[in-house]
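Purpose: get a first structural picture of the assembly so the mutagenesis plan has something to point at.
Setup: two entries, given in the order below. No constraints added.
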Amino acid sequence: MGPVANVEAMAATEKELRLRDSQVAQRKDAAAASGRPGDPANAIECRGVTKRYDSSKAGLSGTTFAIRRGEFVFLVGPTGSGKSTLMRLLIKELEPDEGQILVAGRDLGELSHKQLPFYRRNLGVVFQDFKLLPDRTVYENVAYALQVTGSSRADIREKVPDILRLTGLATKLHHYPDQLSGGEQQRVSIARAFVNAPPLLLADEPTGNLDPETSIGIMQLLYRINRTGTTVLVATHDSAMVDRMRRRVLELADGVVVRDELDGQYAPTDMTTAEFGALLREPSTEPQRVAKKREPGDDFDEAFRD
Amino acid sequence: MRLGFFTREAFTSISRNAVPSFAALASVLVTLLVLGVFIPIVQATTGAANDVRGQVIVNVYMKSDATAADAQRVRTQLTALDGVKSVQYVSKGTAYAQERRKNPDAYDLLGSNPLPDTLRVTPKNPDNALALVSAIAPQTPGGGRTTIDPLIDSVGSSKDNTDKILTATRVVKLTTGLLAALLIVASILLISNTIRLSVFSRRREIQVMKLVGATDGFIRWPFVLEAVILGALGALLAILLLGVMKVALVDPLVNDFALLSAPTTIGFGVLVAILLAAGIGVSALGSAISMRRFLQV
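Result (structure tokens, whole complex):
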């Protein structure tokens, strides 16, 4: 080994080393898991998922993790770490270059273009830019998600006002999206995402455009949805929110999971002695799970049916 | 119930996107109007050209000592030739009577009948008229001409005139055909591009629909129905205007000018059907095709 290599090795920061370690570990996990049938108790399971873009680094490289049903998980990481890529892979807007993504134990790669809409009906998706239909009222926007599934008019008339009351929009039924504040628009988009009572809700930077006070309301709403048994995955930059809510945190860096804590904070912190003591005394935290009401995989099996 | 829903969606989306909808309707209207005027014109022109070409005949003149029976014999011979559509026998007497009617004074002066018996040969295809002349009167190696029957005096088809007629009519037919083809291509491009634009301006909407879990058909049908409605409306307006033009301008002229009535042009009913089908078909297809890209996600 020459002197140059030595200098380089020394320059490798601890963070980089940690990253390299977890990359290796995740590759191993993925290799062991590939081909194994999916566990239906896992809402989401990623096995060595890799997605590269031509121009930039942004993407995923061998990401491996699993999220149990009923969990509330924050996905954090700097810009370009692959959060949005992961979200887009989960709604199957993109295809992974390598690896498997399993939702409710079923491989997304097996979904045909025809089955895709039926899969998406089991997902609630919430975006930073709301993605509402601009030419439709609040009521019509939410109703569209039901019309798509072929719900009857009576059904729509019953469910839509209900969900809008739940999200605090009962007075804004006939407003158009551009007449609403950002927080209200996000509530509409959450109402639309949840009106079909999906088993999995994905939120990509749901509070990215909102002020802290409004963000709390949105997070409350997501938490309430999680309490009904829906698995919720929230990609976010909102460190204050993550620190306060103390749910499971998955941290991505350069497309790899570098941290997975059940009781996490936005940034890894050295524990104070008191916290360390408390941790030793308490029984280890389990991710919150809700008692199963239905057989696992019910809703998703529907989507995979021919 | 589905169809009802889609139709309602289509109508509301037309009213929501009034400007692009109007643009699509207007482009259908204008192109179909031009097409509707042009189709009969092309037909009249080609009809007239074909009429002229139909007049290309080969005259076979009998020798003056040939009898009517001889002429009949030659006639059967000619009819048997390849590329002959019909052979008409015009006797000396008939020819004299015909020509005299055209020019009584000159024929009165002549006193006797100088005209020979004539067989008028109509070729199946006017383009083959000159080949037919060679078949009836083959060229000899010496440069002269023999005939297939000794009693044939000469074969008359002035090469120059036949050539001119054939070339001129061919150019006319080709030009109008080319113009018609260009116009049809232009119409299709214009209509489908306008539809593409209106679909493109709503690609975000389509994307959101896909994310909510709408099937391709569920998204596509309101769009296609919308295009059908706009195409049909545009076509109907164009047909209405064409109808007014026909009644107000063309019909009075027909009585005064032979050209307008002589060649058979397309019936107004057929024209209406073609324009309606084209307006609806091109719009619907244009919208379905331009949507495909946005439905891939």
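The longest helix of chain B spans residues 159-200.
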